[in-house]
Amino acid sequence: MKKNISIVIPSYNEASNIDKLLASLNETITALPYSFKIIFVDDGSKDETVSKLKEIASQQDNVYYVELSRNFGHQNALKAGIDLAKSNSDAIISMDGDLQHPPQLIPELIAKWEEGYDVVYTIREEDASLSYFKNKSSKMFYGLMNQLSEVKFEPGTADFRLIDQKVAEIFSDFTENELFIRGLINWVGFNQYAINYKPHARFSGESKYTLTKMIRFAIQGITSFSTRPLYLAIFLGMGLSAFAILFFLVYVFYSLYFGHVISGWASVITTIVFFGGLNLIVLGIIGMYIGKLFMQSKGRPNYLIKNSNYK
Ligand code: UDP
Ligand code: MG
């Protein structure tokens, strides 16, 4: 019997990419001796994505669509797909819907899985087709992540990977609300293998990760895997208090021996503003973690499915 492999593709306003992606996928997978299911997860798209998906699902019987009730974000859409597919897939491949993740890599992912790896992930090489900003910001982010977190992250990893069924089962049981899947998959361990690839430019449409979304995603990643920013807050506080005491002593000494020193407005204001700012930053850091607790404590599901032809 052929092994079952599911390909999960979160799609948000990707109507103009679907045909091309499916054609490219079909070209690669029909030659392979596996039984494939292609699962598109529509993440509350506002364009023709859903009607497009229904159309192709009616034409090709290994294509399925899952319609979420609204936009839940890329990570949650991906989890929806994995949750559905895990019970009847020996392995699950996840990839983006914009052809940035080349389907031509799929045979290699599968080959490594057959060699016994449980997670085969991909590393995007720095590439001219991606913006300078995307290349650099991604590098900086992973550098920061590695400084702050106990789990090590490799620059250039995205959600283009194959996971074995047992990893999918474990991942599915995670009840974290703010998902940072590449971190979680790294965290679970097992036998992992990395493949390098050159990303393509987005085929059509625009990136859904705006700058603010990217920063939020980065903060989510850091706070999901580390409490080190809290220590940073404490050390900063301790360091500054020590400095303030020292400063005070110097000042007392100075006025005892040299008489009254004229104190300027500017320095006072600067100090107030500086420490005010620091207070806000530290409060913000603490607040972020409390916010996470608050969100998690409600125990809401990560996504809701409105409609699907998956079976
Ligand atoms: N995506 C999604 N929900 C969202 C945003 C994005 O399902 O709210 C999907 C999108 O359709 C694509 C993948 O996630 O398949 C990656 O998004 P995008 O290509 O915009 O990100 P980038 O490649 O620029 O990081
Ligand atoms: Mg993309």
UniProtKB/TrEMBL annotation:
Coiled-coil positions: none
InterPro entries on file: Glyco_trans_2-like, Glycosyltransferase_2, Nucleotide-diphossugar_trans
Family matches, as SUPFAM superfamilies: Nucleotide-diphospho-sugar transferases
Pfam families: Glycos_transf_2
Highest taxon of source: Bacteria
Cellular localisation: Membrane
Gene3D superfamilies: Spore Coat Polysaccharide Biosynthesis Protein SpsA, Chain A
The protein's name: Glycosyltransferase family 2 protein
Species the sequence originates in: Flavobacterium nakdongensis
